């Protein structure tokens, strides 16, 4: 299936006489975002391998969709580990608003990121961000300011050390960077969105993060689900020219406890068999490993997912 056909399927939500099953929406961020591209890749292999009709449904941010997946108004979603754990436990943003029906389907990939600046910028390190314009607010996201705070902490800085420029979400952040309204942003490595940003601004520099034990401790204090990772250059990774220490945390496909077992099994079958095709669409999906889909996290999996992993000999890790 061509990318043109995939995009057409997302935009035109009409019924199809050829459809085998009722369409299932998967919540993503807005079109062109990192997660929307992931949703397109997932929906493509679901259709071609399992004949499952999944259609990305864009929101201003993925976290806005959590209550709608919990209530089964939406069948599936893509979300980071931090937001999922907060929602399912009723912590943080979701205090007194626990989403008890959420269930994990699979760990999809580690989302890997660092500070991105223009290739011709004088900014060479996180410490150089002092006094610079950085995105803040992120009113429609759970993790926006947490990620910026975590990245700043790797250079011994915090929000008080920079000029804060309000943005609504991650897509608005990318737009502000392209427009020149901010000096740095969160560069998601291997994302089509950030490949486009790079083209728009004439190239990016990925800032190498400090990887000392003290830095990792600071990262864990702010964002416990995150870690530091030494990323090697690869042909399919734009703007990673040298070994670069980046920040990473896991991204998941999730659903609710009312989702039929057959849907979950069909989706996992597609993910297991569709890695190569997904990687062609989104470079960062080269980090998707079917054997790592069953993550050891304090949140329940859908029963059909557990049954699938046990049948396939996929261990929780």
From TrEMBL:
Lineage top rank: taxon: Bacteria
Pfam families: NMT1_3
InterPro entries reported for this sequence: TRAP_TAXI
Signal peptide from the UniProt entry: 1-21
Keyword Signal: yes
Keyword Signal recorded: yes
Keywords in alphabetical order: Signal
Name listed for the protein in its UniProt record: TRAP transporter TAXI family solute receptor
Species of provenance: Pacificitalea manganoxidans
